[in-house]
Amino acid sequence: MKVYDTRKEKGTLTALILVEAKEIRRDGDPGEALEAAVRGAIQSFADTYDLKLMFTRVLSADEQEDGTVMVSFEAAIAPEISLGDYRGITASASSDEEFEEKVLLQAAEDLEVEIPALFVEREWESLEMQKKSDMLQSTALNMLADLHAILRSGIRELTPDYDEEDVWARAIQTTHDIFRGKEMIMTMEELVTVVGKVLVDYGDIDEAFCIQLERIVDQRMNERQKLTAEALAGEVFTAYLHSAKQTEEDWREANYSEAVESAKRNLLLDAVADAENIPVSEDEVTAGVQELAENFRIPAEAVRAEIGSEAIRFHLRREKARKFIVSSAVRIEA
To answer: Is the pLDDT of residue 181 over 80?
Structure first.
């Protein structure tokens, strides 16, 4: 491993290193061999400079004619942490959930640390994914996304001139009417009737157009089945922004503070795990892999390939640290 360039800024490291050809195994799967060599080179870099790296992300890995690989990566440098009191915290609470939240919040407040920008950014990416996933479970937002797509297609059949914001406003109002019981949709005919009531302001709704509208509705339902989870989540998220009258930047600004709090809490858990020498056995990692496999109904091997054993070990260690802090706390009934 050779180092060509390194830069540090606000706790974030970017580096350009060369993986020697001899470090890459040529037997077995070439992709896996290259990935293992890159991981090993980054770890060697961290060991050489006595760095603890977190949230490592390979930006590029370009194989050269001589068999070497030029690797660019970024990572957060684990910050210096000064733990405050995390044992025996006293908190007043009326429920287990409230007690745990107060205890962890107090322990995090006593933590002295400068949080790396990349650490917060990764926490935000995870939080953003979770929030969008939660939105994807909303029946109302899914209905709004579908109604907007159907209304827009119907309006285009009637007139080339329309206001996109007006389409959203009508889709939102129609969704509200459906969920307030003012409109009932149980069948294709009822959905066409509801949409037709909206479209009447844009042109003549005759029998021929109603047949066309049925095709539009059917087409949307077929398109929905073909959408990837990511694409559908994007549509539902857009529906949420319009219903909340927010831009994506507004939404990010309103929720970003959660990422900062989450980053600080995770740094607390990591520091407590280190201070208490909390171990995670191979059996516990295997059990964690199996649990995820059962939850997502995929093979255990796929879980290890997609998430990685070390990431699961990391998560389990944090969970143990969380339980340690809470179990040592003293609860006062509210």
So the answer is: no
